[in-house]
Specification:
Length: 235
């Protein structure tokens, strides 16, 4: 790895550590520079702003998880249905990331209204996972579990829907702060999505789970508790 690439990775490592320890909003570019003994020129040579650092961190974390997932799928002897359920569960933001990072994304994207981070994340998901989902769909067609005339295209559509669902779940949680009952809306939305995937793939009724409901609900409730706690402290 080139010296410049090493410096860039070091900035990302330091920033990620500070974001987790202090919070994204409470960490400034100067804090990152001070922690590294780095000049402003050294920072801005690689990044335009603090949010661009968070975008890179998010992409790096996602790519690491997706590479691990691809390896698991490659070595797995699971049926196509079980592979699809596992993949989409792993792609769910609330199951894929630890609570602190989810909270950070929610605050930056949905409270502060910065959409660049999620736009980049959506593209990474499509680029990295579309070939993998298509392989699973082809396997499902061979096994007789799925039927579609477009096995090479439907995977991207499923991921686009998944991205939209993640996005809407996040919006529901942010809008529903202070109201734990908002998780009911999350359940309803996830169930509609699950049924839609079964229809798109002509999969057997009830075969598609896509997510672990208990884990998703636990993560959603934890996000609400964390938001309420932080907002109370700020008030």
């Amino acid at each position: 790895m080139k010296k410049g690439d090493l410096r860039k990775q070091a900035i990302l490592d330091t920033a990620e550590e500070l974001f987790f320890a202090r919070g994204y909003e409470e960490t400034s570019v100067q804090d990152i520079l001070d922690a590294m003994g780095l000049s402003k020129g050294g920072f801005y040579h690689h990044f335009e702003s603090k949010i661009s650092v968070l975008e890179e961190i998010s992409q790096r974390r996602a790519e690491k998880q997706y590479a691990k997932l691809a390896q698991e799928m490659k070595l797995s002897n699971l049926s196509a249905v079980n592979k699809l359920n596992h993949l989409f569960s792993a792609n769910n933001l609330f199951e894929r990331e630890e609570p602190k990072f989810v909270r950070m994304v929610l605050r930056v994207c949905y409270e502060a209204g910065d959409t660049a981070l999620m736009t980049r994340q959506r593209q990474v998901t499509l680029d990295k996972l579309t070939p993998l989902v298509n392989e699973i769909v082809f396997q499902g067609v061979r096994e007789g579990a799925f039927y579609t005339r477009y096995p090479g295209d439907v995977g991207r559509l499923l991921l686009m829907l998944s991205n939209d669902i993640n996005d809407e779940v996040a919006r529901i949680l942010v809008r529903g702060l202070g109201n734990p009952e908002c998780v009911i809306s999350v359940i309803d939305l996830l169930n509609v999505y699950r049924d839609s995937v079964e229809i798109l793939l002509n999969a057997p009724y009830g075969s598609i789970r896509l997510f672990d409901m208990d884990r998703v609900l636990k993560a959603c409730r934890q996000a609400i508790v964390n938001f309420e706690s932080e907002n109370g402290e700020e008030g």
